[in-house]
Write a structure and sequence with these properties.
The protein is mainly alpha-helical. It has helices at 2-7, 13-38. It is 68% helix and 0% strand.
Length: 47
């Protein structure tokens, strides 16, 4: 998409590395939240 190419440094490996880590962190937190809800426990950030 031209809009993303104009405003984001998509050629930078560090930018993509950072985006990857943000997505991994969000996925891990979301999975932990789903497990807590499925076990009918109160969701906590730190176990």
């Amino acid at each position: 998409m031209p809009a993303f190419e104009a405003y984001l440094p998509l050629d930078s490996q560090w930018f993509l590395f950072g985006v990857g880590w943000v997505l991994i962190t969000a996925f891990v937190l979301l999975c932990g939240w789903v497990e807590d809800v499925a076990a009918r426990k109160k969701p906590r950030l730190l176990p």
